[in-house]
């Protein structure tokens, strides 16, 4: 505890308010999960917290120098006049992009009903059945509440670089290009969300009709009522399969997750690819500090920590995106284990044919299956006889 207290006391002033706010949200979401027996409290805040941390750094000149009330955002005097005197155009641009991201995610979360206090992510219910109750509560405190809240804080740190480290100069060409790329990425993510939503509408409508349930309140699927790019021509085999494999989902098993990770990598790159330092680690990696293999082998394991430190230090500015990608990779493995359990034959075929994230892996898998003479067989399970991606006009 003394070490934690000392660490907090010595914390850089730019991190003070975000850390305080993160600690508060961690405690609140954890206590709420215990009171409600529902651990999806962080999920409900996920749509807002990255924007809150990003806006804090982008709007530093707006905040008072001393907190007016508990957890009031403020700009410590020790940050200096250069930081507080005016807004960083780059930080404001990043905040604007994250605001668009927040609107998209909030809309998708709302229509899925996840803002309802009684709703819980189905994956937590599955996890409860796989681990003892005491272990689940440890996971709830350490990962669901603490780790996820800390990760959401990290997503605001790229904006900190632009606001507190870099000079507040006009936007550069790289800023415009990356901002445009971020908007295109969000458009693809929105389309992936909408295609999945449209699929579930079709699936529920078809299965209700198949049961002959005339009292069902399930709305019939109408592709003309879908968002642009989401009105796909689903067939009965799609509903029976249980999960979507058409549209963008024909090229990536999780196109929404791919776009989500890509967006935060773009946000991370905006300050690092600008004319002002710091720059990408690859441009200033201290290779001269890496000892030779013979030195490492002679001093192992004592050289291990210094060696890891020499690699970690240059990568510190990309830690937010790295941490998010690590979370998505591990959580996707768990999500897919659930899907594979529900649809053993179909999901195995989908995994054989389509890459988890990258469309390039989908192309590679197609080539491998063709060389093995199994491509047509696997594709029949994944897509049947329907068109895998196009809409019929």
Tell me what the structure shows.
By secondary structure, the protein is mainly alpha-helical. 64% of the residues lie in helices and 0% in strands. The chain has 18 helices and no strands. It starts with a helix and ends in a 10-residue tail after the last helix.
Secondary-structure topology with pairs:
Elements: H1 2-9, H2 13-36, H3 41-46, H4 49-58, H5 81-84, H6 89-111, H7 122-130, H8 133-154, H9 157-165, H10 173-211, H11 236-241, H12 255-272, H13 293-298, H14 304-315, H15 319-342, H16 344-353, H17 359-372, H18 375-383
Helix pairs in contact: 2-8, 4-6, 4-9, 6-9, 6-10, 9-12, 10-12, 12-15, 15-16, 16-18
Helix content: 55-70%
What's the rounded overall pLDDT mean? 89
Q: Count of DSSP helices?
A: 18
Uncertain stretches: none
Q: Tell the overall outline.
A: globular
| Largest sheet composition | none
Structural class: mainly alpha
In terms of DSSP E residues, the strand content is under 5%
Q: What letter string, H or E per element, gives the SSE order?
A: HHHHHHHHHHHHHHHHHH
Count of distinct strands: 0
Provide a concise account of the structure shown.
Helix content is 64%, strand content 0%. It has 393 residues and is mainly α. It is globular and about 65 Å long.
List its traits.
393 residues, mainly alpha, 18 helices, 0% strand
């Amino acid at each position: 505890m003394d070490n934690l207290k000392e660490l907090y006391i010595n914390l850089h002033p730019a991190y003070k308010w975000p850390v305080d706010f993160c600690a508060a949200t961690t405690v609140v979401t954890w206590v709420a999960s215990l009171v409600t027996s529902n651990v999806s409290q962080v999920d409900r805040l996920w749509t807002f917290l990255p924007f809150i941390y990003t806006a804090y750094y982008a709007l530093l000149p707006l905040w008072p120098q001393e907190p007016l009330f508990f957890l009031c955002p403020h700009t410590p005097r020790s940050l200096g006049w250069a930081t507080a005197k005016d807004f960083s155009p780059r930080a404001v641009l990043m905040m604007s992009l994250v605001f668009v991201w927040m609107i998209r995610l909030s809309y998708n979360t709302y229509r899925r009903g996840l803002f309802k206090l009684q709703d819980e992510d189905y994956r937590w219910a599955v996890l409860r059945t796989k681990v003892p109750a005491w272990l689940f509560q440890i996971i709830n405190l350490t990962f669901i509440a603490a780790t996820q809240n800390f990760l959401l804080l990290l997503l605001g740190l790229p904006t900190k670089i632009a606001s507190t480290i870099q000079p507040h100069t006009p936007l550069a060409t790289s800023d415009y290009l990356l901002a445009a790329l971020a908007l295109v990425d969000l458009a693809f993510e929105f389309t992936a969300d909408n295609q999945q939503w449209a699929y579930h509408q079709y699936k529920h409508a078809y299965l209700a009709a198949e049961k002959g349930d005339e009292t069902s309140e399930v709305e019939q699927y109408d592709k003309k009522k879908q968002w642009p790019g989401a009105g796909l021509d689903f067939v009965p085999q799609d509903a029976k399969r249980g999960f979507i494999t058409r549209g963008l989902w024909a090229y990536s098993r999780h196109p929404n997750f791919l776009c989500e990770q890509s967006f935060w990598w773009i946000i991370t790159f905006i300050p690092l690819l600008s004319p002002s330092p710091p720059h990408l680690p690859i441009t200033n990696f201290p290779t001269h500090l890496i000892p030779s293999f013979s030195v490492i082998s002679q001093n192992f394991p004592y050289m291990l920590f210094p060696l890891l430190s020499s690699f970690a230090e240059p990568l510190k500015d990309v830690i937010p995106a790295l941490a998010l990608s690590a979370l998505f990779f591990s959580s996707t493995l768990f999500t897919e284990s659930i899907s594979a359990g529900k649809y053993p034959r179909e999901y195995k075929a989908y995994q054989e044919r389509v890459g988890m994230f990258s469309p390039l892996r989908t192309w590679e898998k197609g080539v491998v299956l063709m060389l093995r003479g199994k491509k047509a067989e696997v594709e029949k399970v994944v897509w049947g006889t329907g068109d895998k991606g196009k809409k019929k006009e």
